[in-house]
Predict the 3D structure of the following.
Amino acid sequence: MNCRKEARTVHAVVLIACMIAASRTVASTKTPAAPEMLRPNDPLFPKQEALFNCVNAGEAWKITKGDPNVLVGVVETGFDFFHPDLKANLVPGFFACGNYHTEFFENIAHGTVVVSLIAAVGNNGIGMTGLAPGCRVLAASLGMIEHKVTKLQKKFMQDHPEAGPSEWGKVMRSKENRAALMSFSRAWGQFVCRSTAESIRYLVDHQVRVINISGLLQRSLLPADSWQTLEDVFAYAREKGTIIVLGAGNNGVLCEDYPGDSDSVIVVGATRLDDTRWEEVLEIKGSKIKQGSNFGKRLTVMAPMENLQVCLPHDRRFYACEDGPMGPTKQDFQDMYEISAEGATSWSAPIVTALVALIRSVRPDLDAKAVIEIIRQGCDDLGDEGYDVYTGFGRVNFGKTLKIAMAQGR
C-alpha cells in the first residue's frame, strides 16, 4: 500500500470505508519538446511536456500565462504555504473555524498538489511550473475533524498487516463499530458541507471568479439536512459570476447529484495521457476494487490524471507525527516533487481550473455561462461523436479554447 496515495485520497476512504488505495508506477513516455521560445527554465519542465502537449498548453501560452490580478480559489484540507515553488503564488485566505489545521502530510499534501498543477511559479529556475503560473491562488483551508475511521483503519492495519479491504470492511460493518461509523459519517458530512460552504462564500466575497474543489461533493453521500447549505452557496457563487470546478469522483459509477447547475459548475472527469477514459479494477490482497472516472449527464469535460509532475510538502517535518486528527503518521521524506502515477479526478479538476483562469485573464468581461460554453467548444471530442455521458464534451484543449475566447464577440 502506498501511504502517500492513501493520504491524498482520504475523502474517498472515509465515505467508502472498506477501500484501501494502491498505486503503481507509470513509466514516462518521450514526447516532442515544446516550442523553444515557450520553454520555462524550470528544470522539471521536461517531465511536464507530456501533459502540456496533450492539452495544447503551449499554444495557449502564446496568448497568456495568466494575470496576477486573477485570483483562483482552491478549497482543500490544507496547504504547504512555504513550498519554494508555490509561496510566491499561494495566498493564505480562509481557515474554517472549529477544525484542526495541522501541517501533517495527510492534511496538506492533496491541496499542495492541486495548487502546483494550477499555479506553481514558472520560469524561476527551480522545480516545475503550473499551467497558469501568472495567476495567484487564494487558499481556503477546511482543516480536519477527528478522523475516527482513519484512526481505526491504521490500528487495524498495524495489528493485521496481511489483511485486505474485505477484512477491513467486515470490521467496519460489525455491530461493535457500526454505530461509531454512522456517527462519524454524519459528523464528516456536516463538516464537509459547513466548511465548504463557508469557504466558497469567503472566496466569492474576495473577488475570486473560479474555485477548484477536487473532493467529491455528492448529494447521496452527504446529510440531507446539510446539503441545502451547499446548494445555497453554489447559487450565491453563480449570482456573483463565479465558476466552480468539481472533480467528478473516482468510483467509475453513474453520478449526477452534484450541487449547482451546468451554467456555473464544471464537472471534470479523468483521462489517461492517451485520451482513454480512466477506469480500472485493482486487486489488493485478494479483493477487487473498481476505480474510475464517474460519469453521467452532469459531466462536462475531461482532463489528464496520469504521470503528472507535482509538488509535495517540502520539509521532512511534515511526514511524521506521534498523534494528530488522523492518528500517528510516519512516512519517508524523499523529495518535494514527484511524478504522480495516477491522481484520479482530483488532479484532472485543477487542470481545467487553470484553463478557466487563463480565459479570465484575457477575457474578464465574459460571464460564467459564456466561459463554460467556450471551454465546451474548445474540447477535442472523445468517445461517441459529440457529447456523451462518459467523456462529456471531450478533453480540454487549452490553445483552441483560448483562441475561441479571444475571438468571442469581436
The CA atoms of residues 2 and 22 lie 6 Å apart.
